[in-house]
Design brief:
This protein is mostly beta strands and 393 residues long. It contains 2 helices and 28 strands. It starts with a helix and ends with a strand. It folds into 2 domains: 2-38; 58-98 and 162-392, TolB, C-terminal domain (Neuraminidase, 6 Propeller). The protein is globular, with a radius of gyration of 26 Å. It has helices at residues 2-9, 12-47, and strands spanning 68-75, 84-88, 96-97, 109-110, 116-122, 128-134, 141-146, 150-155, 161-167, 175-181, 188-189, 196-201, 208-212, 219-223, 231-232, 240-245, 251-256, 264-268, 275-276, 295-300, 306-311, 318-323, 330-331, 339-344, 350-355, 364-369, 376-377, 384-392.
Length: 393
């Protein structure tokens, strides 16, 4: 018997049969481990941020579920590259298209009271159109049309007017700041010299900040809503754009237009106390004729104490946060893909953003605690969702 057993176990046929069950078990176990490992890595990437202890944080939307919406743009039409305007609840539910009009791949803008959305439509005649639509959807209202360019709408704090950028002539890319009532009446042009962009209303409605190259460089300017009392805030030795008002209306965040890497600055509305907050650049850049990526997209927290922004210092865009004086800069997202377009929740406890970390979702709207914990996909659509805005209704 011992000899028979000894001979049989070394018989190739017996040996293959003997290993069949373990091999089957190993294959099955490998598949299960691969699935579990993928999910663990996925959970780790969204529940643990750097040195932050996320064990005491959760995503609790109860105080937002019945009075908030997240507005975004998405590609959801089969065999079409057109973007649509959508909204969803803050937990990702009740996703719906708000207008039959396609939208440009730029941020829509919610009115301060959360009842209306301004967006840009590109019509069949290749004209740009400024529209508004109710937050609950419906027929949109056409406010203005331009054949070359129209964009960058900004609502007045009382919802009554919209400032925007529009080309000066049909044959020129030079643009001016315009203003129009939100019902489409009383259209005025506020600037008449240089190339002007990025209008932004002050929280009290008394001023409009914007960027202009009227003096041979791109500077940050202030003016009254009627175009009067024009004032240059930044110096003449550098170029700046994209002014963003602090919630108290006393400071502006803005971005340098530096070929060697954009950086974030702040200053008082009198132009004093100009301070550079960031200084990192994308390490993997080479000169392709375009500016080097650095830091951009500053967004003030609702209480003005912090600024969320996008940084390229690790070769890919990630969401960062810092105190409004530039101190305590912290990385919130660590994806190997693009994380960008941060937007604060109304109470400052969450940040929504766009991420491409899960390839099966392409670009998706994500949400996280404002310290970076609990990063979760929100819109969960297998094409492209981007440019989120969180608004109170």
């Amino acid at each position: 018997m011992k000899k028979m057993f000894f001979v049989n176990i070394w018989n190739p046929k017996f040996f293959n049969q003997f290993l069949y069950l373990p091999r089957l078990f190993i294959i099955t176990l490998s598949i299960l481990l691969s699935f579990v490992l993928t999910e663990c890595l996925r959970d780790k990437s969204i529940n643990s941020i750097g040195d932050t202890d996320c064990s005491n944080y959760c995503l609790d939307f109860d105080h937002y579920l019945y009075n908030s919406k997240i507005v975004f743009i998405s590609r959801r039409i089969d065999n079409s590259g057109a973007w649509g305007l959508y909204s969803m609840n803050v937990d990702g539910g009740n996703q719906r298209c708000l207008t039959e009009k396609s939208v440009r791949c730029v941020y829509p803008v919610c009115s301060p009271n959360g009842s209306m959305i301004a967006f840009i439509h590109y019509n069949d005649n290749h004209d740009y159109e400024l529209h508004t639509v109710d937050i609950n959807g419906g027929v949109s209202n056409l406010l203005a049309t331009a054949c070359r360019y129209l964009g960058q709408p900004s609502w007045s704090p009382d919802d009554s007017r919209i400032a925007f950028r529009m080309n000066r002539t049909d044959s020129s890319d030079t643009a001016d700041i315009h203003i129009i009532n939100s019902n489409g009446s009383h259209h005025e042009i506020l600037t008449h010299r240089g190339n002007n962009s990025c209008p932004a209303w002050s929280p009290d409605g008394n001023l409009i900040a914007f960027s202009s190259n009227r003096d041979g460089f791109s500077g940050i300017y202030l003016m009254k809503p009627d175009g009067s009392e024009l004032k240059l805030l930044t110096g003449k030795n550098a170029s700046f754009s994209c002014p963003r008002w602090s919630p108290d209306g006393q400071r502006l965040a803005y971005v340098s237009c530096d070929f060697e890497g954009s950086q974030i600055f702040t200053m008082g509305i009198d132009g004093k106390n100009q301070r550079q907050l960031t200084n990192t650049v994308c390490p993997g850049w080479w000169d392709t004729g375009f500016s080097r990526e650095g830091n951009d997209s500053p967004v003030w927290s609702p209480d003005g104490s912090q600024i969320a922004y996008v940084s390229w210092q690790n070769d890919n865009p990630d969401i960062y946060i810092m105190n409004s004086d530039g101190s305590n800069q912290r990385q919130l997202t660590y994806s190997d893909m693009r994380d960008e377009h941060p937007c604060w929740s109304p109470f400052g406890d969450y940040i929504v953003f766009t991420s491409r970390r899960y390839m099966e979702l392409d670009f998706d709207i994500f949400i996280m605690n404002s310290n970076g914990c609990n990063q979760k996909p929100l819109s969960n659509y297998r094409r492209e969702d981007t440019c989120p805005l969180w608004t109170m209704r």
